[in-house]
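Worked example

This section walks through a single chain of length 90. The input is the sequence exactly as stored; nothing has been trimmed or padded.
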Amino acid sequence: MKRNNRRFRILGRIIDAGYDSEKAIVAMTMHDMLTLPGITVSELTQLDELQTSIRANKVIMFLADHPEKKVTALEGIEGDKNDVENDLID
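Given that input, the structure is written out below as C-alpha cells.
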C-alpha cells in the first residue's frame, strides 16, 4: 500500500487545531471545518472522507490509499456491515 501524504497532512492540521480524537473529528461541523486556517476545497473533501472512514472503521485504508473500494458518505456503515456478513457466509 502507498502512503497518501495529502491525507496525512490534513490529519496533522486537524490535530494541530485541537481535534485530537476520532470522536472530535467526526463531530466537526461544516462551520468548524471552514474555520480551520487556510483550508482549501480539496482539503474539505479529504476531511469529509476522513470522517466517513472513521465511522466505517477504515482509517488505515484512508491514510494508506488502499486500492480496495473507497468508502463514500452515501454508503454509510450498513454497506460495510453487509460486506462482512457476506464474507462470513462464503
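What to look for: The radius of gyration is 14 Å.
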